[in-house]
Design a protein that fits this description.
heterodimer; A: alpha+beta; Alpha-Beta Plaits; 2 domains; three-stranded antiparallel β-sheet; 17% strand; globular; B: alpha/beta; Glutaredoxin; Rossmann fold; Ubiquitin-like (UB roll); 4 domains; five-stranded mixed β-sheet; 14 strands; 13% strand
Chain lengths: 236, 576
């Protein structure tokens, strides 16, 4: 059972139900908070830290996607500090893997690239890590390019929560964490993958893509996961 | 209940001959005139104290000393000087007792036979009540460490063990138990110092359809810290008793101890302690003849430091990948399998039996206004007396390092003391007189942490220290959230450049701003705390960073400069 909560986001009065997150309440009121790991229809993990917001009365920052609304909350989504941190976040995403937009299949339809543009990120201050990463093209229809993966785990969640296959997961830790299929075997030999392609659809970058796509070929980005969730709900 | 507080007669006390199986204690008929308590915790064991125990037993048997006991006990504290043997009747402690050869056992047996001798002599040992290492200590958590056999429930019962649990379940209401803990002012000993009573009350008021859980966090992982290990190796029953009291207070029927796999001896003793407590009815069903049921299982970690973080620990117990999730919901509301879960550290739980049996005012009588009771520290690094200590809150760092620790080895000078592990900080000489409590340490840019305390001398480079801890954090980052995953790696690389003399002042500024960002945006305590060693070393030792950057010199002589920066003779400051 949810109750009504009233709060203030960026000076704007907002009414939301108690089970809503700050992110969804803001979205309803037309306030944009940038996100990467969040995707409507999937559970939230709060891992990209792009949607961090300030809440009056707390020195801490809160991930808008994983913070429930509270009565009387005063939220700031766009302070100078937050914008600076967001630029840091995007910069670190670019630096930890090898993101070369010019030769990427997701060029111009990449959410990471779009965030960088929105934050007017023109150059990087810190050195790039330049890891040596593999490309897994063993699947007959799709490719996993670790160079472009930002570990948002949308693919992991859509495969687990919507498709129910749980082919994807994360292996290793820290900067050596990698997306793996099954228990670390090539995607093509996965016993659990149903080749449904949902992971490819939800990937925000060019890490998961369909074979045969050319660089910068426009990719339709429909928010279709909520429809699948609704369909599942009606069928069950 | 099948057993009361009286110690069970031991098989080895049979009148005929003092025969015993290997590993069993050698006990006299009637009270012992003198007893040798041989430390069997990991530190002394690694020096052969198990063989020493057998050798002493053999010698005592050969000499037919009828009124002498030889026991296996837990940690005696002065770990650096092991193997250790205590003779409590004479108030003596023998250090560096050689396990190999006849000399070590002979020393101890001579003291047993016709001691006490003059302290300070080989047969006299150290006089405990005069020794500054012991004199400043107040033992609550470590009360039984080194006094009883860690694997004997009888010993624990004989020393008043499980009286608190029986009192709690038979004489006190749940709310009274919680009130005692609240009034004692006990705060979490795992590092953050959250009020224990408040946490208990929160869990007690939460409800879940599938019951509640009590978890003991024994995933101690800070470099140089071994408090929880020593407690579990020396007196596992005390922790189990604390858990059972917690279970009673919050209405939980199941408990888990999450202990790291790197502590095999602790796991072994804990497992055997659980079995014994179940057999005697102190765990399991209908404890002390009441309706209260409580069982405990051991869960072993797989080597991830981050699993000490409570939400990662929960994920790990559930069989998932040990990575944290955003809080709220806190485990007190939704923890193991979504049920309310009380998570306390080993040392916190080990305090509980005393709080219940002696009353809250007894604990709150020790310590400072906001930090009550005692704290166990693992004193290590450049200090004479390395070991496990327990001191009242509010003692000064100077007393800990110079009185208890005996100061630095000769010819070396104090530089800093590091507390709180990889999320902690370095405290310089000018702050040595500050009292050790949660607030003061945090004001000084460090944290209480779980109790690691590393003394550093003038041959320590503080930039290198910051780099060491950053290396630790980047290795241990789970990789879930970006700031910790990529940020710790970038910070490590920047620190490495500074250490090699290759960094510029603008890169130092970059390091600082990145550290701010990682602290503010990381998901869990590991990432949020990872920049702390940088902040604290910059706060007190910025000149050392600048010496590396401007002059390409490591003042402590630790860091090797990049070859192209090494000039003949004088420094090359300002060339860039």
């Amino acid at each position: 059972m949810s109750e009504v909560r009233t709060l203030v986001i960026d000076g704007k009065d907002v009414a939301a139900s108690s089970d809503q997150t700050v992110l969804s309440a803001a979205k309803e009121s037309g306030i944009h908070i940038p996100t990467l790991c969040h995707l409507d229809g999937l559970s939230d993990v709060g891992s990209c830290r792009l949607c961090m917001v300030e809440v009056e009365g707390s020195p801490k920052l809160f991930p808008a996607c994983a913070t429930k609304v509270e009565e009387g909350m005063k939220v700031t989504t766009n302070s100078d500090r937050l914008v600076a941190y967001r630029r840091n976040v995007i910069e670190l995403f670019f630096l930890e893997r090898n993101h070369v937009c010019a030769v990427c299949v997701a060029n111009n339809s990449c959410e990471l690239q779009a965030q960088a543009k929105a934050l007017s990120l023109t150059h990087f201050e810190l050195p790039a890590l330049h890891p040596e990463l593999a490309v897994d093209a063993t699947h007959e229809r799709f490719v996993l390019d670790q160079n472009r993966c930002i570990l948002c785990t949308r693919c992991v969640r859509v495969c687990d929560e919507i498709e129910g296959a749980h082919t994807w997961d994360i292996s290793g830790r820290g900067v050596a964490a990698r997306l793996v299929s099954d228990l670390g075997i090539p995607w093509g030999s996965s016993m659990t993958c149903t080749s449904c392609g949902k992971c490819v659809q939800v990937c925000p970058t060019g890490a998961l893509f369909e074979k045969g796509r050319s660089v910068a070929e426009p990719k339709a980005r429909r928010p279709y996961v909520p429809y699948l969730v609704e369909a599942q709900r009606r069928l069950s | 209940m099948s057993s009361t507080g009286a110690p069970a007669p031991n098989g080895s006390t049979e009148a005929s001959a003092r025969r015993r199986k290997q590993g069993e204690p050698l006990l006299p008929q009637g009270p012992a005139r003198a007893s040798a308590n041989v430390c069997q915790a990991a530190g002394c064991l690694s020096l052969g104290s198990d063989r020493l125990f057998e050798a002493i037993c053999e010698r005592v048997q050969a000499k037919e000393l009828k009124d002498v006991a030889v026991r296996r006990v837990g940690c005696l504290g002065l770990c650096a000087a092991g193997p250790l043997v205590a003779v409590p009747e004479q108030g003596r402690l023998f250090d560096y007792v050689a396990a190999e050869g006849p000399d070590g056992p002979a020393r101890v047996v001579a003291a047993l036979e016709s001691g006490p001798y003059e302290p300070g002599t080989p047969e006299g040992g150290r006089q405990v009540d005069q020794d500054p290492f012991f004199a400043h200590q107040v033992k609550v958590v470590l009360e039984r460490c080194g006094a009883i056999d860690p694997e004997s429930l009888e010993d624990y019962l004989a020393s008043g063990g499980y009286e608190a649990l029986v009192k709690a379940v038979t004489e006190m209401s749940r709310d009274e138990v919680i009130s005692e803990v609240v009034n004692s002012g006990l705060r979490g000993r795992g590092g953050a110092g959250y009020p224990t009573g408040l946490k208990w009350r929160t869990v007690a008021k939460s409800s879940g359809p599938d019951g509640k859980f009590v978890v003991c966090n024994a995933d101690e992982g800070d470099p140089g810290a071994f408090m929880d290990r020593s407690v579990l190796e020396s007196c596992p029953q005390q922790v189990l008793e604390g858990m059972a009291i917690a279970g009673y207070a919050v209405r939980a029927e199941r408990g888990f101890v999450y202990v790291r796999a790197e502590y095999p001896l602790a796991v072994k003793r804990l497992t055997s302690a659980i079995r014994q407590a179940e057999r005697e009815g102190y765990l399991g069903r209908e404890i002390a003849g009441t309706q209260f049921n409580f069982s405990v299982e051991v869960r072993i970690g797989a080597g991830a430091f981050v699993c000490g973080e409570e939400t990662a620990l929960i994920a790990s117990i559930q069989g998932g990948r040990g990575s944290p999730r955003p809080r709220p919901p806190y485990p007190a509301a939704a923890g193991l399998w979504g049920s309310p879960t009380l998570i306390n550290n080993v040392e916190t739980l080990a305090n509980i039996p005393s709080v219940i049996s002696r009353g809250s005012s007894w604990l709150s009588g020790t310590g400072t206004e906001h930090s009550k009771g005692t704290k166990v520290f693992a004193l290590a690094g450049a200090v004479v007396n390395t070991g496990l200590i327990e001191v009242p809150m509010g003692l000064s760092l100077r007393q800990i390092v110079f009185d208890i620790g005996g100061g630095l080895p000769s010819g070396r000078h104090f530089k800093a003391v590091q507390t709180g592990g990889p999320s902690g900080g370095c405290i310089p000489e000018e702050l040595l007189d500050m009292p050790v409590d949660y607030e003061t340490l945090s004001k000084a840019g460090s944290i209480m942490g779980s109790g690691g305390m590393i003394v550093m001398d003038d041959k320590t480079c503080m930039v290198d220290v910051a780099k060491f801890f950053m290396d630790f954090c980047r290795e241990e980052s789970c990789g879930k959230c970006l700031p910790c995953r990529a940020g710790t790696e970038e910070m490590y690389r920047l620190l490495d450049r500074i250490c090699r003399g290759e960094a510029t002042r603008s890169q130092l500024a970059q390091l600082e701003s990145l550290a701010q960002m990682v602290r503010a945006t990381s998901l869990c305590g590991l990432g949020q705390g990872a920049p702390n060693p940088i902040f604290s070393t910059l706060r007190y030792f910025r000149d050392e960073y600048l010496a590396h950057i401007d002059d390409h010199i490591c003042p402590a002589g630790v860091c090797e400069m990049a070859p192209e920066l090494v000039t003949t003779g004088h420094h090359a400051g300002g060339e860039k």
